[in-house]
Amino acid sequence: MKRSVISILVVAAALASCKEKIVDERPIKPDNSGEDGLVTAKYQNPVIRNNCPDPSVFDDRQRTGYFYAYSTQNGESGEDDCIYLPVYRSSDMVNWEYLGNAFGGSERPQWVSDTRIWAPDMEYIDGRYCLYYALGHWDNPKKSACGVAVSDSPAGPFTWTNLKSINPSADANGMLVDYASQGVSNSIDPNIIREATNGDLYLFWGSFGTDSGVWAIQLTPDGLAIAPGAQKTYIAYQTEGTYVHYRNGYYYLFGSKGSCCEKNKSTYHVVVGRSADLLGPYAGPDGKLLSTKSNAFDNDANTMLRAPSSGYFAGTGHVSEIITDDKGKDWICYHNYWSGNKYDGRCLSMDEIIWENGWPATRTGFPSEGRVNGPAFKKKSVTAAHAVPYQKHSLSGGTPGDAFSAPGPLVETSDSCGCRNTWRLSDEYVEQFKVKSIYE
């Protein structure tokens, strides 16, 4: 069967100036030799080679047949090319297609002024897609807040002003928590988890700061408002990017510590604690509590994933949901700076989770750098997906889906929030480098 593949002829030349490891950026075709009707695509990190910080990966195979990835705002607010919440789609978690802005066009929630859209989390509740997000304010964390928007499609557009028509107790703008209502500064990084025995929904949120930390509070069954009379519970000290996963009687809390946004100097790393109770207390492998003020979660004993000493990746953190493939293997995505290729955006990487003595780990404790086997899925679930950073800069000259397309060198665009770099395809690259179709 013939497949049209777009191959960049000058990848090596374009990246040679890096004087570092050269990565073949051509998209990766599925390996159809898998056993038991399963298909595996080999991949090499990162899998989304574009700015994709604070990712959430959502498994929607049962409804649409795809996985969806969402990330923090990409661009400077108010600029024409700003994507207020990027959405990607994939059928194999290796090849990703950029779909657009979750809010449609240039629309975005701005019920707190001068904030940016950060750290989304996606859930399917009561027949609708619920997108949880933060309105983040870097200079004044007390202005930050978390909210929810809804849609009948995982790609959006999501709306946030109609929630009272669904749940009269919902906020007019979909706000869930902020400093005024909960007394938690840096109210960012929402994550939704169900209690395993009764199905109650809880919001975990929070970040760094003396009056912040990570907290949890119960939501209404539709996920659109704080449950009547619900009180917040303190969960973790000086942690952010929380994700909670239930497995074999334990809740596992993944969090990120260290500096997130200093490019190759970032010290971000992923820590983990577990508890038999959703509301904790959460203890690490060495028995130390996440809720206690200490440096116990800055050591190797409680760290699951960190950047390698080689410097090829940096700032490894903010994990997404764990996805189980059709072979029963668990996979987790996260962001990191691709320092070895001089990319200053935080790209999306992925690795397999290995469970050892009841604790999650990756094979090396670092992001994988070589080409490895990706998740295995049934053949009917896998189609040719496309890695297209921005529709307006599609290298194939058409719209996403016309042909395979690989991102070229990236350039920084202006952004008033220096910690959140913004990236797009270089116009110079599109003009100077040619693309050739190869048929096999």
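That was protein one. Protein two is written in the same sequence-then-structure order:
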Amino acid sequence: MEVSIRCNHVHYTYHTLQGETPALCDIHFQVNEGEFVSIVGPSGCGKSTLLSLLCGLLTPESGTVEFKGEPVCEKNRRQIGYMLQHDHLFEWRSVRKNILLGLEIQKKISDETLQEADHLLKLYGLYRFKDARPSQLSGGMRQRAALIRTLLLHPDLLLLDEPFSALDYQTRLKVSDDIGSIIRKSKKTAILVTHDLSEAVSLGDRVIVLTPLPAGIKAIVSTDFPKELSPFERRNTDVFKTYFNQIWKELNPDE
């Protein structure tokens, strides 16, 4: 199996006038193509910093980040899609024009890409809202629109930085199930940062557990669910509780 992205003993420190704050310490792992990996850890331990390093927004202080065998750089980071905590849809643009924004920036608007955009809007239940404004959509629909915007750029790797955190619990369950299923059906490689252990287990093929700041890798837990199960269906299996408790103990060793 080919490696999509690899962290080689990465260290990162924030430097300010007040001093230095080590954020990441000897982060070493790889993600294979087609794999979905979740990352969990205590609040403020550097999970989002790690994603910024993976997509080239930050440069490691030492160690390297490689994407498909080459250092992450301007040349290859366009193949990495990044979904943030907020959908960042522009209210003055329709849903359709919002999902086309990335294509516009990269000057890739064509009859073919417009047809693909409409196909994805139909496939994921948003076509009848294509002329609506983002404020007319539910939170879950907005996140689906943000995902379509990302998928239209055909990234080989998706980075998801708590994309469901702004949603209420019921909507979060539905949207994480929808988006997780979409990513698996499209056979994309994905890395999810989340505080929600249930979400991490139900979506991930592996769960990377980080230590408190400065973050190192405390454990990597592999999950083994039947391939046909959706993320929501995984939550109803007996083994789900086993994985959840294992990760909980890694994060809370004194309890």
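The two ends are 38 Å apart (CA to CA). Keep this in mind for the problem set.
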